[in-house]
Design goal:
- The chain has 140 residues and is of the alpha+beta class.
- Helices cover 37% and strands 18% of the residues.
- The strands form two sheets. Strands 1-3-2 form a three-stranded antiparallel β-sheet. A three-stranded mixed β-sheet has the order 5-4-6, with no helix packed on it.
- The structure holds zinc ion (2 copies).
- One zinc ion (ZN) binds at residues 35-36, 87, 90, 93, 95, 106.
């Protein structure tokens, strides 16, 4: 999602949130990611900005409460994405969780088809575990 700081400021104001450098940093970090990111990953990506874990967490929670950010659980960890981003509905498609590097990748919804008993219930999340392409290549 291409948003500049002026647009982020407007959005935060519309949702009744104070504009802080930390919130803008968190929004930029989420906008730069194609996949939903965990709290720990946001902290890591913002380590250069001098934001501590607690500040990042509070910002993620307030942005989620304001509806700007959507939280989805993948690999039992809450992961955050922009609601207006390219792929906000991470509960609607499967994810590949790499057992080596722990990165999460979004897969097309049609990459997993449920049938039989699985198709009769209401499935909230599909997670595949294994090695991502990079880790597979590195292991060869
Ligand atoms: Zn990997
Ligand atoms: Zn996803």
């Amino acid at each position: 999602m291409q948003m500049d700081d002026a647009q982020w400021r407007t959005l935060l104001g519309e949702r009744g949130l104070r504009v802080t450098r930390g919130r803008l940093d968190v929004l930029r970090a989420l906008a730069a990611s194609e996949t939903p990111v965990s709290h720990a990953e946001v902290v890591e990506r913002l380590s250069h900005a001098g934001l501590d874990r607690v500040t990042v967490y509070r910002n993620l929670v307030s942005l989620a409460e304001a509806g700007i950010v959507v939280a989805t659980h993948v690999d039992r960890v809450a992961r955050f994405a922009l609601r207006g981003g390219a792929r906000p509905h991470h509960e609607a498609h499967p994810h590949l969780v790499c057992t080596d590097c722990h990165t999460v990748r979004c897969l097309p919804a049609e990459s997993v088809t449920l049938s039989g008993l699985a198709a009769t219930g209401e499935v909230a999340a599909v997670e595949l575990r294994g090695r991502c392409a990079e880790c597979r290549a590195a292991a060869r």
